[in-house]
Amino acid sequence: MTIDQLTESVIGMAMEIHRLMGPGYNESIYHRSLEVELAAANIPFESEVPINVFYKGKIVGKFEADMVITIGKQLLIELKSCETIVKAHEAQTVNYLTATGIDDGLILNFGAPSLQFKRKFRLYRPRQSSNDPFDIQ
Asked: Can you give the pLDDT of all 137 residues of the chain as single tens digits?
């Protein structure tokens, strides 16, 4: 399974959770629901993963990633249950990616009327150009 296929699969699971539960629950409810979906799909993951931040070889801070999927290439998942994904959520996810060395991240927001999701990358990855006039870059 490629990282793109894995990401698509996780987004599908999140859509199913949002469709069945709707918005409005605490983030932890969606977190546990996604754990159920991942386990049912036999996708290995870790929850509430501790992240150390180093400066000159010394730990200067600690974070906790909501989830890391550990099949093939890793995927860091940051869950939200708020009105909308904001720049601070994106920066937080990129910081987690940088601190862990994981390349791919996914923000899932269950708090909006429709599921919101956004992919983030540790390193800048320009989108591939497309001949599709509706593919907004």
From this structure: 899 999 999 999 999 999 999 999 999 999 999 999 999 999 999 999 999 998 999 999 999 999 999 987 799 999 999 999 999 999 999 999 999 999 999 999 999 999 999 999 998 655 555 554 444 43
Q: Which tokens is 39 given? A: 């386990």
Running DSSP on this structure, what letter comes out for residue 64?
E
- C-alpha 104: how far from chain center: 8
Quick one: which of 111, 106, 84 has its CA closest to 93? 106
- pTM, whole model, 2 decimals? 0.86
Residue 96 near residue 76, CB atoms below 8 Å: yes
Other Cβ atoms within 10 Å of 1 Cβ, number = 12
The contacts of residue 26 (CB under 8 Å, 6+ apart) are 81
Q: Which two three-digit tokens encode residue 25?
A: 């629950």
Cα 100 to chain centroid distance, Å, stands at: 14
Domain 3-121 has CATH 3.90.320.10: yes
φ, ψ dihedrals at 129, nearest 5°: -70, 150
